[in-house]
Design goal:
Nucleoside Triphosphate Pyrophosphohydrolase; alpha+beta; 19% helix; seven-stranded mixed beta sheet
């Protein structure tokens, strides 16, 4: 169908090898014979988890984390998230990351969707999971340089505020979009 748009990959050279991603230069040739170098960011697979529960009053709540983000030099409010470790499935990573960052476990894990975060130059996939009826099980087990506050936020506030202020993270907007599609499919009330 789109075979005329597929560029063939040639020589690949790692320009930078880093702790969370590598940068490569890849030679590619178009179907009409043009050849050019392109930059590719090779990152591991990511997972983002939307942990939900109801308050004592029956209000739908989402567990979120506040943390300092070095790229923007600001504190952001996000769904728990992290990378998929070597030998681990995205679902296993979602359950592990939720437990490590929040100390919570849930009763049901649902894949909401997966995407390429930016196909223009990134080669990885991001996976989004809904984990329902979360309850405390352990203390946080954070990575060496993580500093995270955990809080429960009314789902209505998250929907209203996403993309503004402290909720300024594009991947979280994507996660919320996947969640909203699932909520509509299930006819969930927000």
């Amino acid at each position: 169908m789109h075979t005329h748009l597929i560029w063939k990959s040639g020589k690949r050279e790692i320009l930078y090898k880093g702790p969370i991603f590598d940068v490569a230069k890849v030679e590619r040739t178009s179907t009409d014979g043009r050849c050019a170098p392109f930059i590719e960011v090779a990152a591991p697979k990511w997972v983002t988890i939307i942990p939900v529960h109801r308050s004592k009053e029956g209000i739908p709540m989402v567990v979120m984390v506040d943390q300092f983000r070095h790229g923007s030099a600001t504190v952001t409010r996000e769904f728990p998230a992290g990378v998929v470790d070597e030998g681990e499935t995205p679902k296993e990573a979602a359950v592990r990351e939720l437990l490590e960052e929040t100390g919570l476990v849930g009763s049901r894990v649902t894949l909401l969707g997966e995407i390429n975060p930016n196909p223009a130059f990134m080669s990885n996939r991001a996976y989004f999971y809904l984990i329902e009826d979360v309850v405390p099980q352990a203390k946080q087990d954070l990575d060496e340089n993580e500093q995270i506050d955990v809080l429960s936020v009314p789902l209505e506030e998250v929907v209203e505020q996403m993309g503004t202020g402290i909720y300024d993270n594009g991947i979280m907007m994507i996660a919320l979009g996947f969640f909203m599609r699932e909520a509509k499919r299930r006819r969930m009330t927000i």
